[in-house]
Amino acid sequence: MDWTTGFLQRFLGLDRSDVSNLSALYFATFIMRAAAFAGVAVMQQVILPGQANAFWHGLLFAVYPVAEIATVGYFGAQCDEHGRKRILIFAHVITAAAVLLFVLSIGSYVPEVAKAYLAAVFFTMFGIGAGAKVASTLAMVNDHSSLRNRAQLMAVFDLVTFGGLAGGFGAGFLALSALHWSPDSVLLIAGAGVVLSVILVWFFVQDARFVPAPPLGTLGLLKEVFRNKDIIRLLPVYIPVVALYGYVLTFTDQIIAGHGSAPIPIMTLTVIVLAFGVPLAVSLVAFGRWSDVARLRRPFMLIGLGCFGGLAVLFSLATEPGGGMDPNYLYGVWPGIAALSFGAGTFPPAALAYLGDVIHRDVSGTSFGIYSLIFGSGLIVGPIMGGALTVTYGPVAFAIIALSLIAISAVAVLFLREPARNHAAAEAASAAADPPQTK
User: Fold this and answer.
1) Which pLDDT belongs to residue 48?
2) DSSP state, 325?
3) Which residues, in sequence order, are CB contacts of 309 under 8 Å at separation 6+?
4) In this structure, what is the dihedral angle of CA atoms 429, 434, 436, 438, given to the nearest 10 degrees?
C-alpha cells in the first residue's frame, strides 16, 4: 500500500494526504453509482415491464435530468460558499433514500398507476442527488488538480462513474433475470451499498483547500460563470456528445436487438462488450496522461470525436433491414471496435480537464455544475430527437443522429483556445525570469 501511494505521489505530483483523500472519494463514488444503478435496473423492470408503458419510460428518463438541471446551480453555489463535503454527503444520503424507499412502492398492495408516479418521484430524487454529486465531486477533484495531473484525475472520475453505472446496472439486471433474485433483495442490497458510500464520505473524505466564493448568491454566481466565454464555447462541444449518449441509453433495445430478434449468444455478446469497454477504459487513463504532458486538450478531443464517428459508421453497417444489429457482423469486426474504442477514450478526460483549465477557482463548484447542465440537457434533447427520427427512419436513424451530432461537436472544438498550453508557457516564463535562490 505504501509503495502504491508513493508511486501515485510521484506519478501525479500529489501529496500523501491528497492521494488518500482522492482514493476515498473515487471509491465512494464507484460504490454509490454501482449501487444506485442496480436499483435503477430494478425500477425499470418492475415499473416498466412492457411496451405498453412507453409513456412512463419517457417520463422516467425526463424527470431525472430535469431535476438535475433545476438544482445543480444551487448545489454548486453552496459548494463555493461553504465547502464541498456537506453537499457531497447530502448527495449520497438522498440517493440512498431513493433506493431504499422504492422498496415500499413495489408491493402488490400498491396500484400500478401509483407505482409509476412513485417511480417518477424517486427518479427526481436521483436527479437531485446527481446534481449535488457532480458539483461537489468535480469541484473537490479540481481542488487537488494542477496542469500536471488534471486530465488524469478527471479520467479516473470518468472511469469510476461510468464503470459504476454499467457494472451496477448490469449486476442488477442479471440478478433479476439470470439469478432470479427478488426485486426487494436487489433493492435492499443496493440501498446498503449507497449507505456504505455515505459512511465512506463522512469519515474518510475531507474538504480540500478551496477559495471561498464572493457573497453573490446562487444567481449571482451563475451569472459570473456564464460571463466566461470559454465555458460558453464549450457548450456546443459537450451537449451534442451527451445528447448522443442519451439517445443510445434510451433506445438501446432498438439499436442493438431490434424487434423480435433472437437472443444474442453469450460468447458473442461478451466479445463485443469487452472489445468496446476494455480499450475505452485503458485509453481514458493513457490519453489523460498524454494530454497533461502535452498541455493540450483540443487535439485529444478531436481524435475522440473522430473515433466516435467511426464507431457510429461501424455499428450502422451492422444494421439489419428489420431493425437492430447483426451480432455476427460485430463479432467479426471486433478488432476495429477495439481500436476505435481506444481512440474514443481521448475525449472525456480532455473535455473535463478543459473545463477545469478555464474556470476561476472561487466559483469552481458553480462552474462544474455546468457539467450537470450539459449532461441533463443532452439527456433531454437526445431521446426526444432520437425518438422522432427513429420512428421516421428506423435503425438508420442511429447513423444520422450520431454523425450529425459528432460533426457539430467537432466544429465547435475548432473555436476553443488552449488555456493549458498558455498557462504552461506563462509558468515557464515566470520561472526563467526568477533567478534560482542560493543558500
Assistant:
1) 53
2) B
3) 402, 403, 406, 407
4) -170
Distance, first Cα to last Cα, the chain: 36
- Residue of 41, 257, 50, 273 lying closest to 170 (CA atoms): 41
Give the whole-angstrom CA distance, residue 196 versus residue 280.
28
Quick check: is 437 in a domain?
Answer: no
User: How far, in Å, CA of 286 to CA of 147, rounded?
Assistant: 16
Give me the phi and psi of 326, to 5 degrees please: -85, 105
pLDDT in tens, 66-87: 888 889 889 998 998 888 999 9
Kindly state the helix (H) or strand (E) to which residue 358 belongs, with its residue range.
helix 347-358
Residues, the chain = 439
Query: What tens digit of pLDDT does each residue of 81-115 get?
Result: 888 999 999 999 999 998 888 877 776 667 766 77
Q: Helix 298-317 vs helix 347-358: angle between axes, to the nearest 10 degrees?
A: 150
Last residue of a domain, one of 181, 209, 237: 209
> Which DSSP string do the residues of 176-239 spell out, in sequence order?
HHTS---HHHHHHHHHHHHHHHHHHHHHH------PPPPS-HHHHHHHHHHT-HHHHHHHHHHH
108 and 246 fall within a common domain: no
Instruction: In whole angstroms, give the CA distance from residue 305 to residue 237.
Output: 10
CATH number at residue 146: 1.20.1250.20
b/e map 26-37, b = 16+ CB within 10 Å: bbbbbbbbbbbb
Query: In the chain, pLDDT over 70 holds for what percent of residues?
Result: 80
What is the phi/psi pair of residue 271, to 5°?
-65, -45
pTM of the full structure = 0.84
Tell me if 163 sits within 8 A of 29, measured CB to CB: no
From the list 383, 202, 409, 413, the residue with the least C-alpha distance to 296 is 413
Comparing 117-126, 387-396, 418-427, the range with the smallest average pLDDT is: 387-396
The DSSP string of 33-84 is HHHHHHHHHHHHHHH--SGGGHHHHHHHHHHHHHHHHHHHHHHHHHHHHH-S
Cα dihedral: 426, 427, 428, 433 (round 10): 90
Is a pLDDT exceeding 70 seen at residue 185? yes
Which uninterrupted H or E stretch holds 256? Answer: none
Q: Which among 176, 193, 209 is the end of a domain?
A: 209
Instruction: Choose among 87, 303, 304: nearest CA to 207.
Output: 87
* Owning domain of residue 362: 211-419
pLDDT at 50 over 70: no
Degrees to nearest 5, angle at CA 283 with 398 and 348: 60
